[in-house]
Structure formats: structure tokens, C-alpha cells
Specification:
Radius of gyration: 18 Å
Order of helices and strands: HH
Number of helices: 2
Structural class: mainly alpha
Shape: elongated
Helix content: 55-70%
Number of strands: 0
Distance between the termini: 17 Å
Largest sheet: none
């Protein structure tokens, strides 16, 4: 079922949230990796790894909107 303009807005918001989520996961793992180099910060680094891992689990939801070409696209692969 096509919803038109509303569907496009929802897809764009989903993509924006997904990109933001991936960015923060990368930040948690990067910060955790840097902190892991310093023994006194090892506990904080482990927590950052746990936060990033949990964020992976939450972001891997069962619903991922399928990619659909733009209706006016000239791409013949569908």
C-alpha cells in the first residue's frame, strides 16, 4: 500500500534516525577503544562497549523498510 507524501516523510525520518544511531555507535566504540589504552579508564571503556553493543541490539529491529525506487526513477531494475 502506497501512502504517498507521508510515506516519504516517514522513510526520510527513519533513515535520519538510522544514520544518527550508527554515528553514536561508532562514537561509543571509538571512545571505548581509546579509553581502553589507559588502565585507569578500563572500566569506563567497558561500559562504552556495552552501551554500543546494546545500541546495536536495539537498532536491529525486525522492521527495516524495504528499499523502493523513486516512482519517477529512470532505473529499470525493480
Amino acid at each position: 500500500m502506497k501512502l504517498g507524501h507521508e510515506e516519504l516523510i516517514i522513510r526520510r525520518r527513519y533513515e535520519l534516525i538510522s544514520i544518527g544511531n550508527d554515528f553514536f555507535i561508532a562514537i561509543w566504540f571509538l571512545a571505548g577503544s581509546i579509553l581502553f589504552l589507559f588502565p585507569k579508564d578500563e572500566k569506563a571503556s567497558i561500559w562504552l562497549f556495552i552501551i554500543g553493543s546494546l545500541q546495536f541490539v536495539v537498532s536491529d529491529s525486525p522492521y527495516h523498510p524495504p528499499h523502493q525506487p523513486h516512482p519517477h526513477s529512470t532505473n529499470s531494475r525493480q
